[in-house]
Write a structure and sequence with these properties.
The complex is a heterodimer of chains A (about 290) and B (about 325). Chain A has about 290 residues and is mostly helical. Chain A has a domain at about 240-295. Helix content of chain A is about 80%, strand content about 0%. Chain A has helices at about 5-10, 10-30, 30-60, 65-80, 85-115, 125-150, 170-190, 195-215, 215-220, 235-240, 245-250, 255-290. In chain A, α3 runs parallel beside α12 (about 255-290). Chain A is flat and about 75 Å long. Chain A starts with a helix and ends with a helix. Chain B has about 325 residues and is an all-alpha fold. Chain B has one domain: ABC transporter involved in vitamin B12 uptake, BtuC, CATH 1.10.3470. Helices cover about 75% and strands about 0% of the residues of chain B. Chain B has a two-stranded antiparallel sheet with strand order 1-2. The N and C termini of chain B lie far apart (about 45 Å). Classes of the chains: A mainly alpha (about 290), B mainly alpha (about 325). At the A-B interface, α8 of A face α4, α10 and α13 of B.
Chain lengths: ~290, ~325
Amino acid sequence: MFDSGFYEKHRAPILFTVMAGLLILVGFIQSWGVSLTILNLCLISAIMALGVNIQWGYAGLFNVGVMGFAALGGLAGVLVSMPPVSEAWQAGGLGILSGLLITFGTVMACLLVWPRIKHINRWRYWIVFGIILSGYALLRVFFDPGVDAIESIDPSVTGYLGGLGLPILVAWPVGALFAAGVAFVIGKIALGLRSDYLAIATLGISEIIIFFIKNEEWLTRGVKNVNGLPRPVPYEVDLQQAVWFQDLAMSLGMPVDDASSFSSSSVMHCSLWWSSRCSYGSQKLHFAHRGAG
Amino acid sequence: MDVLNVITLLGNFLIVPGLTYGSQLALGALGVTLVYGVLRFSNFAHGETMAFGAMITILVTWLLQASEISIQPLPTALLAMPVGIAVTVLFTLGMDRLVYRYHRERKASPVIFLIVSIGVMFFMGGLIRFIIGPGDQIFFDGTRFILKAREFKETTGLNEGLSLKMTQAVTIVTAIVIVALLFWFLNHTRTGKSMRAYSDNENLALLSGINPNKVVLITWVLVAALATVAGTLYGLDKSFKPFVYMQLLLPIFASAIVGGVGNPLGAIAGGYIIAFSELILTFAYKRVVLYLAPEGTEIDSLVQFLGTDYKIAVSFIILVIVLIIRPTGLFRGKTL
C-alpha cells in the first residue's frame, strides 16, 4: 500500500492528513487554543507562500523582500482602520502635510528637470542631487516640529496620527495598492539588472521599509505597537458574552473560549481558499500561454 | 584653536571609527567579491561564515585565556585567529564538497546558487547559535586604549579629546597587512594569476590548462580566511553577537556592489565609502557648528542629516542609487 507510486499519486492528501492529525494531537495534548493559533500561523504563511510561489515560480523573479510588502499590508491596516487622533492632527497635521507636499514637489521637480538636463554628461547627477538635498532641508524645517508635536501627545497610548477609522476590510485593497506602488518602484530600479542583483535590491528595499515603519513613530508608533486593530469578525471577548454564541457553543459541546478563537482563523481560511483559487487560475493561464507559445 | 578642536572632534568620532568600520567592511566585501568573481554567485552565507570564524576564534581564545597564555598588550584573539582560520577553511571546503559542488557540476544558474547559499546561511546560523548561543560574548583582553582622550586633552590643551582604542589600531593594521598580502598573491604568484585568468574567462583558462578544482579550492581558502579575520576584528571592536553578522551582510553586499562586484580594489573602496557615508550622515554636528559659529550662538537641534536609527539604511540607499546610476559599480567590476 505504501509503495512510492501510491505516495506520489496521493501526496497532497497524505501530507494534509498528517498535518491535520498533528493539529488534532496538539488540541488533545495541549489545548485547542494553541492548536488554532498554530493553524492560524500556518494559514498566514500559506498565503505568503502562494504569493511567493507566483512570483518566484511563474514569473521567475527572485524577490527576497516579501517581509517589506507584508509590513506595508500591516501599515495599511493601521492607517485605514484605526480611529484618528484629533489632538495629534491639530498639533502636527500641518507640519506632516506640508512635509508630504514638499516630498511630492521634490520628486516632481526631479522628474521635470531630468529630461532637460539628460544630455549634460557631467553635471546632471549633481543637479538632481542638489534638488533632492534642498528639498530634504526644506522638509526637515517643516516636518520635524510637526513630528515632535505629534509624538509628545499622550505617548504611552497614542503619540501618532491614527488612521481614517474606516472598516478594516477597506485596508486589504489599500495594502495591496501600497505594495503595488512600492513594487513599481523596485521594478523600475531592479528588473533590468541581473537576477541576483534583484534579490539584493529587494532585500535592501524591504529592510528600508521595515526600518522606516519601525522608526517613524508619528505614523505607526514604531516598535511601541498599535494594539486593538479592528477585525472583520467579532472579538473573542465580545463573542463570549453574546447569548447566541454561548448557546451555540453549548449545543456543540465546546468550551466557549475555544469556540470564540475559532472565528478569526475561519476568516483566514476563507481568504486562503480564495487566493489559492486565483493562484490555480493563473497557473492554468500560464500553461495555456505555454501551450500557445 | 576652534578649528583644531573641530578637527580633533571629527577625528575622534568620524575618521578613526570610519577607518575601523571601513576596514571591517572592506575585508568582508573582499570575500564576497572573490566568490562572485571566481564562483559567479552572490554568497549570502558570507555573514555567517564571518560569525563562524569569529566563534571558533573565541572558543580558542577562551582556551588560551584559561591556560594563561597571552600576548600582552595585544588581544589574545590574534593568537587564536590562525586556528579559527584553519577550522573555517575546513568547514567551508566541506560545505563546498557537500552543497555547492553538486550545483557547479550541473552548471546551475546563479540564482540557484544564491538560493542554495541562503540555505547554507540558515544552517550555519543555527549551528552557531547551537554552539555558542545567541547572546553577547566578550573576548577582548590586553590594553584597552593606546591613546586616552584625557591624556590627549592634557598634553595638547584642547577641549576635545582624541582617543585610539587598541582594537581600532589592530583592525586597521591587520586590514592593511591582509589586503597587501592578498594583492601580492593575486598579482605575483602563479596560483593567483590562474585565479584571475579563471575569473576573467573560464573557457580560455580551462583551455590553457588551469585546473578548475584547484582554483575553486584556493578561492574558498581565501574567502574563509578573509571572513574569519573580518569577523574576529568586528567582534573585537564591537562585541560578538551572532545576529549582528546577519545584519552586517547587507552593508557588505553594498560595499562590494558599490565598488564593482568581482573587483577587489572596488571592494576595499566600497567598504570605506559605505562606512564613511553611514557615519557622516548620522553624525550630530551640533558641537562642530558651535565651535565654528560666533560666540553665544545657541542651537536646539542636533544638526544631523538622519537619525542614528537609520545608520544601516544608509548603506541600502547608497546601494539603490548605485544600482540606478551605475550598476557595474565605481570600478567597473565583474572580473578579478
